[in-house]
Amino acid sequence: MKITDLIPWRGSAREVAPQAAPMDPMRALQLDVDRAFDHFWRMVPSPVAPLARLPQPDAVRVDVHDTGTEVSVTAELPGMSDADVDVSISDGMLTIRGEKKSDRESEEDGIFVRERLYGAIERTVPLPDGVDPDAAKATFRNGVLTIAIPKSAEFQANTKHIPVRAG
To answer: How far apart are CA 149 and CA 48, in angstroms?
Structure first.
């Protein structure tokens, strides 16, 4: 019995396309085994499949808005406090780092439970030319970090706005 006899084929007849050159028998066996395992794992429901759809713990959602006079960056950092967050600007890049730790112990009905959670995030956002990193301000409220980075007066003076007319 060949391994290909164990694999359900689509269609009623087993038709094998002619090959230009004979395939190495070991390579053919490897392909058959790979195909069998691929088919098997597609049929088995995975207990961790719902976890794959969860947001990644290190992903930081960021909104960047340029008003012309400043660049505003808003980041969602749920479950963190201002002490857990570090913000820095270097070489035209804004870096947001955060670390969340939680340690919980409980005992009920003779059952002792200890949970430790740890999560670290980091997100780097490129900044446009002309921002003044020394005048940047950051505020943290209800899990939302807002960073305002004004553009330098020199850069704003060199910016010329061109009116757009219809027609």
So the answer is: 42
Contact 130, 112 (CB under 8 A): no
- Contact of 111 with 42, CB cutoff 8 Å: no
> What 3-state DSSP class applies to 22?
coil
Written in H, E and C, the secondary structure of 95-112 is EEEEEEEEEEEEEECCEE
Q: What are phi and psi of 149, to 5 degrees?
A: -120, 105
Q: What is the phi-psi region of residue 27: left when phi exceeds 0, alpha when psi lies from -120 to 50, beta otherwise?
A: alpha
Max Cα separation, the chain? Answer: 81
pLDDT digits (tens, 9 = 90+) for 101-148: 878 888 888 888 888 877 788 889 999 888 899 999 999 999 899 999
